Fold:
Amino acid sequence: MSVSPPAVLRRRRPRRLSLRSHSRNRPPQRAAIFTTVKMAICSRMPAIRSALVVTAVWLIASGIYFAFRDDVITRLIDEQMELQVTHEDRIAELRAQIDRIMSQQFLDQEQVKQRVNALLQRQARISLSLDKVEQKQAATLTEVEDHIDTRARQMHTVLADLGINAGRASAEGAPRFVPVKQPADDFERQLYRIDVGRAQIDRYRRTLITVPVRKPVIGEIEMTSQFGRRMHPLLRRLAIHSGIDLRGDLGEPVRATATGKVTIAGRAGGYGNMVEISHGNGLATRYAHLSEISVKIGQVVRIGEVIGRIGSTGRATGPHLHYETRINGEAVDPQKFLRAGSTLGDV
Ligand SMILES: [Zn+2]
Structure:
């Protein structure tokens, strides 16, 4: 059995809707809704437009992105690789630089070590050299001290043999005073002894200035008559010869054999023209038969000063110098003094 539609539905056959009929037939509510929707759409148009623009931009950007994505990635990778290579090169360069610096530092350290070693060796050599210098210095000082000591003893002995008081000098050549403070160092003590010895020699020298130990004429002397008993050439009998006769040419200069003061300067009997010089400490010298006298009584004469000239005045057979040395007025052999002068050398 077929079922037939309800009567209402059958009657209401579907009608073709047209806009005109719709608008003509639509109910007022639906129109209101339509109006409301239309107004809402119109009010939101800017937002929708913006959204559409954004969407379009996004689509374009996406398209561009997907279109150029591979190129960008490739380029980025290339840039990354290039950067990496650059960094690796830079790192290699820095490592090489560090290696160079380390090598340089090593070389510098080696050089410093070598220099330090060289300095140490040099210091050792200098120290050794200083030791040698010190030894040499000590040896030289000892030699000087020995020389001064020998010289002081010699001068003292010569003066003692001549019967001359050597002043403040003691027999051993040591000083009579004791210094306030003795040097503590060996070197200083040696220097001190040398100073004492030199001072002693200076005192002897000052004493010897007034001791007639030098020759009255320059050059080698030739003695024609000695001191003492002899047959007088003119008197033809034994007589005491109070001096020595020295050969010389007429007019040859005669010189003072020590510093002193002239006590006689003129004619003196058989002496002829004579000069007598007092040297102090009882010492005196006489120069006789002079052809010329160059000094006056009271005059102070120095060692080697010309006092007159060789002649043959007085009792003389020919030009020669009669030379005397006297101690406290008593004639003594001048050769004793001349030998002393020869022993002492240049004083
Ligand atoms: Zn004589």
Observations:
- Residues 1-12, 17-23, 168-176 have pLDDT under 50 and may be disordered.
